[in-house]
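Researcher: Checking consistency across runs. Here is Aminotransferase-like plant mobile domain-containing protein again:
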Amino acid sequence: MEEASLKIYQSQVLLPFSLENGSIHAFLGPFAGQNNKKFGNILLPEDATTIPFIYSPKIDLNLFADTTNFFRAFPPVKERHLSWLTRIEASMSSDWKEIGIFEFIQLAKFDLHLFDPQMLLSAIFFWNRETRAFEFPCGFVCPTLLDIAAITGLLPLGERFHPNAFEEEVLIKDISITWDKKTYLAFITAHMGQPGTPVSSSEHIAFLMYWLSACVFCTPSLQVPKYYYVLAQALHLKKKICLSKLLLASLYTCLDEASESLSRESGPRNLSGPLWLLQLWLNAILEKRLYLPSTPISLCELEGARLTTLTPRKRLVDNFEKYIRAFLSFIEFTEDLASFLRQNLIGPVWLRQNNQVGSINPSSTDIWFGFLSWDVIFSGMR
């Protein structure tokens, strides 16, 4: 490569690397010069520690050769909890429908445990902890409440969850939880009732605790912690809590933590939180660009169930370049980035019938107000 071309090359990208055959490649950015970088949030001072990782001058891909321990906190394989879920659902499905979590719980029947580490890490490189968004060439992009609704079936309505306030209000007496059996399999074994026996309040609350820990918020300890006890009781009592906002806040929080961990010399370790949701959202926005193959699924009125079939199965370090190029190809905001605004959407009736501008049912005004109005959301459980 000529010296002049090399200087241009090195000024446009930050991570050139060569393969064993001598060919040179480069990726990870930047799509704009750092000196010309503009922050969308003018209300906050510029903080160098929050610049997206793609602007970092040094990234060692050797850290990402073995990603086994990075994503240990992903949901477990469905076979581990499917029989318990089926048993509880037979008794509690009407209650779940009443509080709006029935469709969401159905997701635990699909392959949420599958993920593509290179796709996830490539996306996290673009996350800006200051703006709480991915910085693509087209601007700031991030999962929204509408994405949550399409993927999980959760409404943008309901009460905020304040652990201390709910603890005083919903504490139930005579609930038996075996606290010394916290690992997932041990917890299931300790609390799952025998076939043919009725589902008790204690068993239902225990199941909800397991589901929240393992399949929703994905705790880093791979155990069922006590701090989900209050939320599980509130759901058992059919409190209409706005889980969609709680889930979205938790996703933002775990992306902040994951982005920060990438800057450590030792690399990230045991990334936790609802990163399964990030995987499904990425599947949605990259489906057409990367021609991700879809597999037919059993009947389920959720985009999230279909998106589980799109997760790439091959885990290759070389895939970093493919994914980075895909993200950098978003020069303009396209329909790929708003993949749930379409007529053939799979999802709850209230979403499918009212997702086109100009044809929104007046009865859905509250729902769309929940999507579009500002709010303060919290991710803490204690």
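Researcher: Does this match what you'd expect to see?
Model: One thing to look at in this run: Strands lie at 16-18, 24-26, 127-128, 133-136, 139-141.
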